[in-house]
Amino acid sequence: MSAYIFRRFLLMIPTIFGIMLVSFALIQFAPGGPIERIIAQLQGTEVSATARIGGASGGDFGAQGQMSGADSSMNSKYRGAQGLDPEFLKDLEKQFGFDKPAHERFIKMMWDYARFDFGESYFRDVSVLSLIAEKLPVSVSLGLWTTLLTYLISIPLGIRKAVRDGSRFDTWTSGVIIVGYAVPGFLFAVFLIVLFAGGSYWSVFPLRGLTSDNWESLSLFGKALDYLWHIILPVTALVIGAFATTSLLTKNSFLDEIRKQYVMTARAKGLSERQVLYGHVFRNAMLIIIAGFPGAFITAFFTGSLLIEQIFSLDGLGLLSFESIVNRDYPVVFATLYIFGLLGLVISLISDLTYTWVDPRIDFETREV
Hints:
The protein is mostly helical and 369 residues long. Helix content is 69%, strand content 0%. Residues 48-74 have low confidence and may be disordered.
């Protein structure tokens, strides 16, 4: 097993390198950029980030080499740069590192990232690592609670549906699951706000933030209650949309195992239904559920919480990444991509190791990575 783990760690290097290389290459063709944003600010024409994407033309991030030629050539590279001093534009390119060829910028970026040196945000005047650490508590709260509750609900529900396949319980829970799967999580979030957060009915839960303004003055027990009070609605909105797939996957996996010959043999030997279900079927059926854990965790931790963070005014990594993309804050964009890429690879390895814990018959040493 140690050799397998070592090989997996070695494979993480070219994998993360490939992810960053493809993303970096795509950015070269993306319209707009930080220099155009500064130009828009100077000209007084800056609009929303999404409008800049639609109206921008030309990618300054793809500028390579030292600038030469006529001043008009320099100005024409950037939308709205007419009338600005070309030397000023050169200074901007040097400040952002765009005076160097793309391959040099990429090599330097990967060398810095290998040492977990992510530099500073272009527009926030703070280190990227500090910025991520500041937003991390919100994303950790949403991701961990959503993943935990989703699995705690989905696995028992899926097992129950498999055992009572075709019953009334199976039918009406399938209806609930279909609704939960079909309706987007952000619509549930709006519904919960209208119903419980001072919309048109009750004002039971807070609408904004992860904690109250007086959180620091509360006791330890009071802080825990205040935190749970704030997190209930966003986590509920995420769980409602996330548990459907895992529930059906659990049910189908258990049904598939229950119909196999070894289950009939176990029953013929006189084992109780509980012994058959949890002593034999469970570890085999759970393998496919464990395989989906890395993706479920990353989705809940990052991309799945973007709209929820926006709706409930929770300043987490999902919202940070989105704003960084539309604002062309490249250090933040690439740093979050790098960190979550590594996190996904490590969680995938942990998932494989969990396989061997659930079913000791699995031996990764005997297979190629």
